[in-house]
Amino acid sequence: MSITTTPPRRRRVIAGLATAALLAAGGILAAAGPAQAEPEEADRVILHEDFSSGQLPSTFNAVAGEWRVADGRLLGTGASYAGSPARITFGETLENYRFDATLRFDSVENDSRWHALALDMQPDGAVPWQHAALRANTAAGNGLEFARRTAQNTWDVTDTHAAPAAAGVGADVHVSVVVQGSHGEWYWEGTKVFETDQLARTATGIQGLVVDGSTVSYDEITITEIDPPAPEGALVFDEDFSGGTLPEGFAPVEGDWRVADGRLVGSGGNIARITFGPHLDDYRFEATVRFDAVANASRWLALGLDIQPNGAAPWQQAAVRTTTSTGSGVEFAQMNIDGQWYVPFTGTAPYDAGTGRDVRVAIVVHGDRAEWYFDGQKVLDGSQLLRSADGILGFTQNGVTASYDDIAVYELQPLPEPELLPCIPGTVNPGQTGVIIGHRGYSSRAPENTMPAIERAEQAGADYFEIDIDYTADGVPVLLHDDTLDRTTDGTGRIHDVTWDYVQTLDAGSWYGPEFVGTKVPSFEEVLDWLQDADIHLLLEYKGDWPNPYLQTTIDLIEQYGVRGKIIAQSFNFDIEDRLNRLYPELPGMLLVGGSLPASVVDLVKQYGQIGINPSSAPGPEELRALHEAGLKVFVWTQNSASAWANLTALGVDGIITDYPGELREWSEAYNAANPGAGACADDENAQQLRVEVPEASGPGEFIWNIDGTNGIVDLGVAENAGDHWAASGSINPIRVTDTRAASPEWSVSAQVGDFTSGGESFSGKNLGWTPTVRESGGGAAAGAAVLPGFLGGDGLSVSSTLGHAQDGHTRGSALLGADLDLRLPLDVVDGAYEATLTLTALG
């Protein structure tokens, strides 16, 4: 049976920031937790289908693959890894809705094959589209995902998560996805599993199903229109222009401003502008805007985010053009006091605003940071906004006649100050600056993913440079972020469809500026050749999907040039990281995720054999604590403001990825000069500071070890060349333990060492092992087990290890604990003065 109803007038999403706990009509979907509420009265079932008629419903359009109705269910079959997956479309264009379905994998080619609910797909099934997928092995780290099929017919997987259980074959599972603008929530059997704010939406997309490498049957498909999320914050200013005249408090500065047909209309002037509203530090500014006429496609209108009441420069604005889906369709821009524009952040929306069409826009501002929303979808992040002590709001425009309606301004709570973490050895600590990573090289000073950008990152003092690699039709790995050549070269087409010979003819610099005309697309091999002698490390991102033979090509090149020790790999595609780890376990890798960290993040990172994870948002303090306690690293991308750098440094993240590595280096040096030793474990009275000086390679081959701290000398003597490594030994400063408690409960003393660092160079604390001893017996004390250094196959002291302990009921008394240290280093350690901290913890 098929039920369709005429939906009410579609409601515009304001900002898509808040989420709601919702139930399907039959109580199917609920937010995690005991509370359950009935559906809102405004919710409307748009489509319900149980396939009881035995025929494919007339509103279902089979696009590709095999689709039929049998035994009261819809069956879809699609081939694996298809360039055109099996898909069928149905439903309505809705901004806010819930998509429910009961599904069953009837057969799968392997556990990685999948089906998806299409959340925004054209009626003819053409690319691009947005979907929510699940695999037969839904319990895997990428068992559930939000993903996009791009206009170039490639995959862009934005968010992944494991389901509570595996879907398997032959069992019904009820799934639901809540969509509110660009916000999506994945529900498994009524429990919310994860969410995203990165859904790609279009003006004409509807719903559908997609199947790859499996036969899947469906029943009880329901599409329910729901309300947009409730606005956050307190409404402090609103205007709908129903009074017929210019409202009090609206001050025209330049151009013609009037009220007509219940809207504010602006025209004329060079930069027409009008000011109004309060001064706020944290707020959301919303309005319905419409271009009525434009001089040309480059002209714009803007929301004034911080503008003087008299409209004088300088001011900060958020602009939009009619051609919103191309070029600089949306932007954050500043008019400087000298009358010059500074436009640091530009982006695009999923479709054009055009003329004669209402668009709901919203800007969320927190201090000098902002988010741009277009019809409920976040399309751009900005930082380093120009803020003043008394700037208010307004509209500005150039070369257009535009109308405005339904202004709403909500005051928001400030973002919370980051909570400081305790000192954790082996990581960057709260208040300490992490490594500096130049995003796509020094991409704010040279064309991204080119040798000039990479060389400038090294010259600016970055510790790492990040690059993206993909491969040509003939299997040559090259540097390229997009899956097509169009944006960053004078060529065109998908990189997988063109040869290396063609790529070598292209200009990858002229788009950036005349200084870089003739710059070429580098091959991965060219970068590795350069890296051999460079004073910088590489964070290597694999884009798209990589077959194993092409992965092996990159592995062979890394080994050929001997730079494995300078590289960390990363990818949004967890399957790539998993296969790379199996093919090349010696190469460290990190998972790459958009937004915040996924649930069970420590288990997820360990599942894929990675050394850490790199989110785009600051982790929560507890999340970071858990990762650091597990010995895992966190780099945060792509952070371009001093306020973000300060917040992340206060948290203690291990690295910051930025388009401005030179500026971050200057900021870090200034910060460290003003905060010597801030947050360092060396300030802990229960810590011992270690220092090692590694001589130049041309010297006699000795390590000279000396203490550099307040707890006495930890002297590891002179290292000797042991043939295939350097070796040094010594002893910690003894630890006196006295226990005279009547109950004589058990106690233990453990220790852990951080990385040894010298400037931008480092080596892991894993290289340091020990053999604990009881120097003076008493109190039932026993020595902990010996720990082998990494060179001998152990984990070293990079993980917490017991120095000594006593069992429950031990005799009362005192013992002196010590340990003989065993350091073994590779022969290629760079010369320098290295320091590390050994932190001791007593439990009793």
Automatic annotation (TrEMBL):
One of its GO terms (molecular function) is phosphoric diester hydrolase activity. Residues 1-37 form the signal peptide. Coiled coil: none annotated. GO terms for biological process: lipid metabolic process. Gene3D superfamilies: Exo-inulinase, domain 1, Phosphatidylinositol (PI) phosphodiesterase. Residues 434-668 form the GP-PDE domain. Keywords: Signal. InterPro entries: GP_PDE_dom, PLC-like_Pdiesterase_TIM-brl, TAT_signal. It comes from the Bacteria. This is GP-PDE domain-containing protein. It comes from Microbacterium ulmi.
